[in-house]
Specification:
- The structure is a single chain.
- The chain has 9 helices and 7 strands, in the order ααααββααββαβααββ.
- The strands form 3 sheets. The protein has a 3-stranded antiparallel beta sheet with strand order 5-7-6.
- By secondary structure, it is mainly alpha-helical.
């Protein structure tokens, strides 16, 4: 069974969610968030209860405000932005579901392959993405066939921009993947437009190292 991947089915989070997560990686900011999670607190209360310099509290609160995690300030108590945390939770949940879907697609595809090819696919597709491009031609062909079925299941024209978007869901080196798909005759390319072709004619040894 073919399971196609649409460009908007992203495992990656959007820029706002990534910025919010990065803001929460600092130990001092986490302490501040943990404190006001119990209820709004003024700057003086935060400084006193955490026993930190006032300038540090102001700096970290400003960053948390800029990322939408904390509200208040300007004379008002600081408080958590519950809406931001809820949105972040939804984004993480959606990313987890997308990753699970990708893993299911890998196992579904691998189940119909000879054991050696299934082993290759499971080794190189990790957490729904291509961990690395195999150096072995035969292993690479197994991976490329999988990517073609996931990204280009429809027999139609694919502009290069769309090809890049779809392949980027699996690996950042889209230029190499595009070239390999064409070189192995899995895809055709003409005037910047790609289309599905045959099953490929790559060679090499599936048992050789990647």
């Amino acid at each position: 069974m073919q399971v196609g991947v649409e460009p908007d089915e992203r495992i990656r989070l959007d820029a706002a969610s990534i910025a919010a997560l990065k803001a929460l990686t600092d130990p001092l900011r986490l302490r501040i968030v943990g404190l006001i999670a119990g209820g709004p607190a003024t700057l003086d209360e935060i400084v006193a209860r955490l026993r930190i310099p006032r300038r540090d509290a102001v700096r970290q609160l400003g960053l948390l405000q800029a990322k939408g995690i904390v509200g208040g300030g300007d004379g008002r108590p600081y408080e958590l932005r519950i809406d931001t945390l809820q949105a972040l939770g939804r984004d993480l949940d959606a990313a987890e579901r997308a990753a699970a879907g990708r893993e299911a697609a890998v196992f579904a595809a691998a189940s119909g392959l000879p054991p050696e090819e299934a082993k290759v696919l499971r080794a190189f597709i990790v957490d729904g993405r291509l961990a690395s491009i195999p150096a072995s031609e035969k292993k690479r062909l197994v991976v490329l066939r999988y990517l073609r079925e996931q990204c280009f299941a429809e027999d139609r024209d694919y502009p290069e921009r769309e090809v890049n978007q779809r392949l980027a869901l699996f690996h950042r080196d889209v230029a190499s993947l595009r070239r390999y798909l064409v070189d192995t005759r899995l895809m055709t390319r003409e005037a910047g437009v790609y289309r599905r072709a045959g099953d490929g004619d790559g060679d090499g040894d599936a048992d050789s190292d990647a």
